[in-house]
Design brief:
There is one protein chain. This protein is mainly beta and about 190 residues long. The chain is built from 1 helix and 16 strands. β2 and β3 form a beta hairpin. About 0% of the residues lie in helices and about 55% in strands. The radius of gyration is 20 Å and the shape is flat. It has 3 domains: about 60 residues, SH3 type barrels, CATH 2.30.30.30; about 60 residues, Nucleic acid-binding proteins (OB fold (Dihydrolipoamide Acetyltransferase, E2P)); about 55 residues, Nucleic acid-binding proteins (OB fold (Dihydrolipoamide Acetyltransferase, E2P), Beta Barrel). Keywords: Cytoplasm, Elongation factor, Protein biosynthesis.
Length: about 190
Amino acid sequence: MIDVNKLKVGVTFTEEEVPFRVMKYDFTKMGRGNATIKIKAKNLLNGAIVTKGFISGNMVEDISLDKKHLQYLYKDDEKGYFMDPVSFDQFEIPLMVLGDDVKYLIEGEKAWVLFWDEKILGVEVPSSVIMKITESEPGARGNTVSNVLKPAKTASGLTVMVPLFINPGDTIKINTESGEYTGRAN
């Protein structure tokens, strides 16, 4: 059991036999009485994002997840396919379980896949990824007073708003939590 005060970002726990991973943590203490803890958590079975509230001092069941470094092969309309580079075992993960994280996976690259009692719960993406731009409109030239952005598509199919000077073939850094462009990559 783990105290709800320790439900920081990234911690995994179960509630009613459903595994969750904390995405956002908020602690509120107003006047007298108990503090309240509000978290935004991802349901690791179906990928749904839920908001939960707890009173300080409550307990939840903590779980430990196993991670395997698997190679991301490809995806189709229903599943993402991964392979263990040592044993060559293949794993199929429904896109519903992968959720938006599939947008940050690059074919042929390795990813950490999360397992709980031999059940696949999804992938763990880093806080930022480096991706190559495959399509973007030409940037307009001239006087621009504000930060003007244009849509650009990455190799994984993700569309990101980027500055006008970014062209196809450039590599950029993307924040996986917000899905926003953060800078050029070397």
